[in-house]
Write a structure and sequence with these properties.
The protein has about 150 residues and is an alpha+beta fold. It is about 50% helix and about 20% strand. Helix 3 runs parallel beside helix 6.
């Protein structure tokens, strides 16, 4: 199981039999785990968006950002070895008027892919890679969004 699942196991009260099942079965078999996998990117995107745009979106009109995460994929070790070694992220970000819900600005973000070392080199690559690819993927994506905003 990916390191992301290990973080969940450290914070949840789970019996040893379930821990073994979580490590060998798909995450969708465990609703609390899938909830954790949704909550973590949501929190990171929310915090990252505030950091990326806090000094740009400073007008007097209250707005809110609506982020639709269309694709967020970090392949497992087995997938990296045998099938696919690309991380992927794509999101749409809407800025809407808080009072009326009217769309002010729409960003249809590009699908961003990043190749990781795969195949037989995966094990060695994991030893040197960042421990949290998801955090760096989100930060890079929001940095690109910030740059897009600055050009608007």
């Amino acid at each position: 199981m990916a390191r992301r699942g290990e973080a969940f196991l450290k914070t949840a009260t789970v019996d040893p039999e379930t821990v073994n099942r979580i490590r060998t079965e798909p995450a969708y078999n465990f609703p609390p785990l899938t909830g954790h996998f949704r909550q973590v990117p949501n929190a990171r995107i929310g915090n990252g968006l505030t950091q990326a745009t806090g000094d740009i979106l400073t007008g007097g009109q209250p707005v809110r950002a609506v982020v639709r995460l269309r694709e967020f994929d970090i392949p497992s070790v087995a997938r990296r070895v045998f099938v696919d070694n690309h991380t992927k992220i794509r999101a749409d970000i809407d800025i809407v008027d808080r009072a009326t819900g009217r769309l002010i600005l729409h960003y249809e973000g590009p699908s961003t892919r990043s190749a990781r070392i795969g195949g037989l080199g995966t094990g060695i690559a994991l030893a040197f890679e960042q421990s949290d690819l998801g955090a760096s993927m989100i930060a890079d994506y929001l940095s690109a969004y910030r740059n897009w905003l600055l050009r608007k």
